[in-house]
Design goal:
Strand content: 5-15%
Strand order of the largest sheet: 2-1-3-4-5
Shape: globular
Number of domains: 1
Number of strands: 5
CATH topology: Rossmann fold
Number of helices: 8
Largest sheet: 5 strands, parallel
Helix content: 55-70%
Length: 191
């Protein structure tokens, strides 16, 4: 029984990987590289497993892409400050937990990356809408339901699956491919 489930999951995962638009991933990488070169900030947001992935993205792009004295990317996961997140959620509403933080930090030209399976996470949708209104570049990486995040993103990347595990697995696959490529480019520039 488990072996059958495993094979089916692996098959769906591989199909979703094969369906990823490499050109869109390259656009995301170019946006992140431009932000790094220009000193613009990048904010990564999500809920649940996507929140954990946003923290992982901030780690990989905040540390993992750097070689020696390479230019640094100013990247932050807005889920990481538990005290602030719970204060905003309790005193205002969880729907505004990311938007309220962006009001403190966002500058025109900064980048917001929203991770979601449904594409309809209200707090991420509101943060992307706020970002667009205030001159941010917006990216969404979402499952095949697309949701409102697809419309709000300057660069939407759709993972052709509705399985939350597969979409979240691919959130990390994308982060690792792009961050490792950027690290390789940093190493070349350092030599």
């Amino acid at each position: 029984m488990f072996k059958s489930f495993y094979r089916n999951y692996l098959h769906e995962f591989m199909e979703a990987l094969r369906g990823l638009d490499v050109g869109t991933q390259e656009k995301i990488m170019n946006e992140l590289e431009s932000a790094r070169q220009e000193g613009r900030q990048v904010f990564v947001i999500g809920n649940g497993g996507s929140a954990a992935s946003s923290a992982h993205w901030a780690c990989d792009f905040g540390k993992g892409i750097n070689v020696g004295e390479s230019k640094r990317l100013r990247v932050f996961s807005l889920i990481d400050n538990v005290a602030l997140g719970t204060a905003l959620s309790n005193d205002i509403t969880y729907d505004e937990v990311f938007t309220e933080q962006l009001k403190n930090y966002l500058n025109p030209g900064d980048v917001i990356i929203g991770l979601s399976v449904s594409g309809n996470s209200e707090n991420v949708v509101r943060a992307l809408a706020y970002g667009k209104k205030h001159g941010a570049r917006t990216i969404s990486i979402i499952g095949n339901a697309r949701g409102r995040m697809a419309e709000l993103a300057d660069i939407p990347l759709v993972v052709e699956s509705g399985n939350y595990g597969i979409v979240e697995d691919i959130h990390m696959f994308i982060a690792h491919v792009i961050s490792q490529y950027m690290r390789r480019q940093s190493a070349k520039a350092a030599n």
